[in-house]
Amino acid sequence: MKVLVLNSGSSSQKACLYEIGKALPDHPPACLWEGRIEWGNHIATVAVKNSRGDVQQEQLRFSSRQQVVSHLLSTLMSGKTRAVASVSEIDAVGHRIVHGGPEFEVPVLVTPEVRSAIARVVPLAPLHLPAELEGMDIVESLLGAVPQVAVFDTGFHRHMPLSAAVYPGPYKWFENGIRRFGFHGINHQYCAARAAQLLGKDVNSLKLVTCHLGNGCSMAAIQGGHSIDTTMGFTPLEGLMMGTRSGSVDPGVLIFLMRQSHLDVDQIDVELNQNSGLLGVSGISGDMREIQAAIQQGHQRAKLAFDIYVHRLRAAIGALAAELGGMDALVFTAGVGENSAEVRAAACSTLEFLGVKLDSDKNARPSLDQDISAAGSRVRVLVIRAEEDWAIATECWKLARRAGPA
Are 2 and 89 in contact (CB under 8 A)? Predict the structure, then answer.
């Protein structure tokens, strides 16, 4: 079974083609073909490669996103990066859908009704959902009636206890659909299963804290394979400090800015989503690599940004560990989590009281999907590669197996 996965974002577009046999492998396989688009100001940077090692890179002027995504997908079937002879070889297409709203929990086959339901929650994720719906249209125009599957980032968190899901505002908020949804659920769920595999345990027996640290950051408390709490909420703004997002701030600050500085809703939105986080504090960048390089050069605000980031990360680890009543493993994943030894070391440096001890040598040079804790650590510390695209592909495979022959 060949499954194409589209991961559509506001600033990038990823796509991968997987081939899955009659049984799921223990480890994610390499893609048969993968492509990426980085969106710029009327210029799109396109990079494609296949399993034979053929590579294609180009920059394209564009008037519509659909034009460039269609071009990207055409390299699946033509040119030096071709991976299939025709569209008929693709059995299913999976889409990462950032927000499923109150309706969707499990992956579903895309129908007109499903598209309409996703469109209704566009105001909850306006930077992502339009691109994801557009991706469905592009697939239909290029590949015809191939089955498409929607996999929801919020789904994994849909059964958090009400004590974690309901905001302490007027109860009518909750009655009107305002609740903590949580995000990055596809990767949190994958990391829980992969952690259990690495530890040789049943996921249902484990208490895990997973740290998805990328440009967007969130954490989850996972017990018995289920999310019981997470740091993001109604939107991806809540929780940890991020690359350009603030994370949680006193709502009174926003009231003050609206009254005293006369900022309107759109200006507040830009401040919180684009001008805050590592970028906002440091004044340099939202990229942790550039923050750490600036620290080496003695940049004080970069050091402050790093310290705030770590402070909030430690606080969240402690809070989620308390919610679980202890933890068996602490997992780091995504761009910063996988690649920044400094962040992992700083985050764990005060957690020995919880049973966390890092092996400094392993932490400095980890391979992915590795235990980097010291031999005497009661809590295992794992670095796990984010595999959202593979997790989406496996959900398509499972859905096809349940459906049986067409």
Answer: yes
Cα–Cα nearest to 376, from 352, 392, 398: 352
Determine how many CB atoms are found less than 10 A away from the CB of residue 135.
24
Q: Are 72 and 57 in contact (CB under 8 A)?
A: no
DSSP per-residue string spanning 102-155: TT--S-EE--HHHHHHHHHTGGGSTTTHHHHHHHHHHHHHHH-S--EEEEETTG
Give the DSSP H/E element, type plus range, for residue 4. strand 2-8
Which amino acid, one-letter code, is at 124?
A: L
Give the whole-angstrom CA distance, residue 28 versus residue 94. Answer: 16
Domains 2-152 and 203-383 agree in fold: yes
What does residue 33 show for φ and ψ, rounded to 5 degrees?
A: -160, 140
Tens-digit pLDDT profile for residues 370-386: 999 999 999 999 999 99
Dihedral angle at the C-alpha atoms of 315, 246, 389, 331, nearest 10 degrees?
-10
Segments making up each domain of the chain, as ranges = 2-152, 203-383
pLDDT at 157: 96
Low-confidence ranges of the chain (pLDDT < 50): 406
Question: Which contacts (CB < 8 Å, 24+ apart) does range 285-293 have?
Answer: 286/215, 286/242, 286/243, 286/244, 287/215, 287/243, 288/243, 288/335, 288/336, 288/340, 288/343, 289/339, 289/340, 292/340, 292/342
Residue 271, helix vs strand vs coil? helix
Q: Output the pLDDT for position 10.
A: 65
pLDDT digits (tens, 9 = 90+) for 260-281: 999 999 999 999 999 999 999 9
For residue 369, which amino acid is it? D
Contact present, 2 and 90 (Cβ < 8 Å): yes
For the domain made up of 2-152, the CATH class stated in words is: alpha beta
Active-site position among 26, 137, 153, 328: 153
Q: How many CB atoms lie within 10 A of CB 175?
A: 9
Residue whose token pair is 């002879």: 85
Strand, coil or helix: what is 334? helix
Q: Which CATH architecture has domain 203-383?
A: 2-Layer Sandwich (3.30)
Full-model pTM: 0.92
Please say whether the beta carbons of 222 and 326 come within 8 A.
no
Q: What is the DSSP string of 199-255?
A: HTS-GGG-EEEEEEESSSEEEEEEETTEEEEES--SSTTSSS--SS---S--HHHHH
User: Is position 371 annotated as part of the catalytic site?
Assistant: no
Q: In what order do the strands lie in the sheet with 329-333?
A: 226-230, 217-223, 207-213, 329-333, 380-383, 370-371
